[in-house]
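Researcher: We're teaching a course module on how sequence relates to structure. For the next exercise, students receive a sequence and then see the predicted structure as tokens, so they can try to spot secondary structure elements on their own. Here is the exercise chain.
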Amino acid sequence: MIRRSASYAVLVAGLVPLLLPFYWMAVTSLKPKREVFTATPQWLPTHPAWDNYLLAWTAEPFARFFFNSAVVTALIVALQLVLASLAAFALSRFEFPGRRVIFWTVVAALIVPVQVTFIANFMTLAHFGLLNTYAALIAPYAASAFGTFLLRQAFATVPRQLEDAARLDGCSGLGFLWHILLPLSRPTVLAFALVAVVAHWNDYFWPLIVTSNNTVRTLPIGLGMFIGQEVTTDWNLLMAASIFVSAPMLLLFFFMQRYFVQSKLYTGIRG
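Model: And here is the predicted structure for the students to work with:
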């Protein structure tokens, strides 16, 4: 009993500094401007100003930014899942010349920072006139070396006997991938999808480079513009705008966090 109480105490002590910034962001977003900076910390607003959210939402075209972020993130993750699944399936289940070379090339790609490719990608997109389009935001991230590696390792743990039995029952290669490999690797697939969603939802640098108008800008860029337009920052409105960006990912993680645990438990690492 004492040991369990001590464990809970340590967990709570670790959670407080982790959750405090999110709590303060939420509280500040509901404060009138005069209550943002006070002599002593004000942990609750005296009169919650719910209209802060409306003011922040209309200060910039956040509805368009939100739509752009949702479309770009969904398409990137969908393409990554399809291409990574097919590549991982080939690397884990087929024997062909150069398979190991391709696999280690994928591993080597994990070492290369994505920022190294920005200049080449930008010049290519500019050459084809694709700047300020969804294609510019999506194309460089359509394939994922990390996703290919992660799914390949998960697929490699499925016994060959199961594949042989599926073949005897008339299951095709893609049928085996769709009906057996992906369902058995669901925790890994969902964990990768969640990591990809968070990464591309919060991506700031690449959209900043390839977009220059509000029709294709995403939420992080919109938030940066919102900060930049203020001569003196209205911190309550800024915190309300920050909620627009962070709340979807916080809710997504809250409902999907168990898949992170499952992926660690059930995903083997094999060569």
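Model: If you want an answer key for the exercise: The mean pLDDT is 87. The domain at 61-266 is CATH 1.10.3720.10 (MetI-like fold).
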